Amino acid sequence: MQRTLGTCYYPEHWPPEVWTEDARRMVEAGLTWVRIGEFAWSRIEPSAGNLNWQWLDQAIKVLGQAGLKVVLGTPTATPPKWVLDKHPDMLAVDEQGRPRKFGSRRHYCFSHAGYLEECRRIVGLMVERYGQNPHVAAWQTDNEYGCHDTTISYSDAARLGFRKWLRDQFSTSGQNDGVEALNQAWGNVFWSMEYGSFDDIDLPNLTVTEPNPSHVLAFRRFTSDQVVAFNLAQVEIIRAHSEAPITHNYMGRITDFDHFKVGADLDIASWDSYPLGFLEDRVGASTENQRRYAHQGDPDFQAFHHDLYRAVGRGRWWVMEQQPGPVNWAPYNPSPLPGMVRLWTWEAFAHGAEAVCYFRWRQAPFAQEQMHSGLLRPDGVDAPAIVEARQVAEEMKLAPQVQPARAQVALIFDYEADWAWAVQPQGTGLSYFGLIFDHYRALRRAGLSVDILPADAIDFSGYALVLAPGLMYMPNGLKQAFADSSAQVLVGPRSAARDTNMAIPVPLPPNFPGLDVTVARVETLRPDMPVPLKEGGAVTGYLEKLEGAAAIVMQTTMGAPVAMQAGNVTYMGGWGDDRALDILIGDLCAQAGVATLSLPEGVRIRDTACERFWFNYNGEAVATEAGNLPPAGVLRVDIA
Ligand code: GAL
User: Fold this and answer.
1) Is the pTM for the entire model greater than 0.85?
2) Is 330 near ligand 1, meaning CB less than 6 Å away?
3) Domains of the chain
4) 395 classed as catalytic
5) pLDDT tens, position by position, 278-328
6) Does any ligand 1 atom lie closer than 6 A to the CB of residue 118?
């Protein structure tokens, strides 16, 4: 597989006179790709039906003739004002029932049929015009589904859609015959919440106290399906006129829709990586780490998403937007340490990215992102990132093409489990994403390369260790596949804790074949009340009382079982802190025959089929067994 670089460009922001020179400089910097168009609807169609393609024809021609490949974005994240005037009820509505307003972007509700038609129309016109254009080498649908909290909408359109969706799920005749089944599955006898018809069912906002968790989980599934359908509508139109691959640019720690389902309809997954922007809010780094990594980003957060989106893209994925310098939207917006833009780029390639594109080409001196850096300054002078991009482009010439390799360790990530935890966290700050990321970090501290798998994967051949913590609903087929596999398997806490409608199953969880463990009770604890373990480390936040005859492999200092094992399956009945997870994963790796390392803080590795990459996220040099790693340093070592 070839590695390539690119950038995000907005020809509509600059006079046509500079396009040629911009294109020449992009090629000179070693870039292959240029993504354009995704916010340009008001220039393509300034008023209803009044189409102006000439400028875009010209921009594509200039970029293409310079030798660049164009990724053309559909402009549906930014409907112009006239679209809203035509469909005044197309806005997403927040949980308080307030419509979002015009004046930024993503001001639409995924459920609005009229807006969907507008999207079909503009995408159709675009792909009819450019579907066979030799310079258009890939498509991007919309821009960042879920950005700015825009997935979940409590609009009238969503209410209608939700009722239909429920009917489809529960009714056999398409009428009200399934409503009893719904009442039963959700337990609506509780508090007299029973419905007589699907048309009685409202959206789960503005209730007096918490709504039924089954109701909320169903609404979250419906919401996700609306994103899938919205995306598929565009994909079908593009495919009818173009053979170029289609992608969407996902985000960091956005879990409001099932990316695996959206990804199943696309050719390539891509994501937008802003390591410094993410550090505080998305990573939830400690104050100490926010200082320590302020100029580098979290050492595991990018890697996690690289691995996640490799799975979402079924092996094919890109970084569509790579932070090049300070951004404008985080609580604080520091500069990257010299070398970090290069490090982030190589890290993406080490995880299998086909392309890394920098956002954006030239900093815009106007509007919302005027403080967001680019590869060029607003005056067109080189900004520091372009120097590092050029360096990577040079280095790529010497690096062999990358052959991805299957990791020895797999970690299951499931969007529905994230919704289930969000619907019922049972304690402040407890999230599925947080639990999964803690496990991922522990694996990386042990020097392991990780594959992320969706929850419907049932073929674990080739893996020595598979982890599925927190996977609240586990179909019997998955439990059996775990029991049958030759891998060591780690599940819990909260794995298999609910049925598919969010009720506690009886027999009580986890109810695994061959594993005599029962979760008899659950408690959650303040973060400053860790429960120390005899083996070292502690359980924090979430603790289960385990009963049964399976072997105890971890226990509290008071002797209560915390992790239990039978055969190849280990159940962990608590949220281990870093030390506890290091011990548990170390033991399981030893049992699975997986070699581990003890990496210095801030140093991480990633293996491809024939290379081992070493990355130093520290601001100081670090000595490693592979040699001295300078600050923000990268080492690429050939392996047999
Ligand atoms: C992304 C978005 C871009 C731009 C960028 C700024 O989330 O896709 O359009 O806003 O952030 O960092």
Assistant:
1) yes
2) no
3) 4-152+224-396 (3.20.20.80), 156-217 (no CATH), 409-592 (3.40.50.880), 604-638 (no CATH)
4) no
5) 999 899 889 999 999 999 999 999 999 999 999 999 999 999 999 999 999
6) no
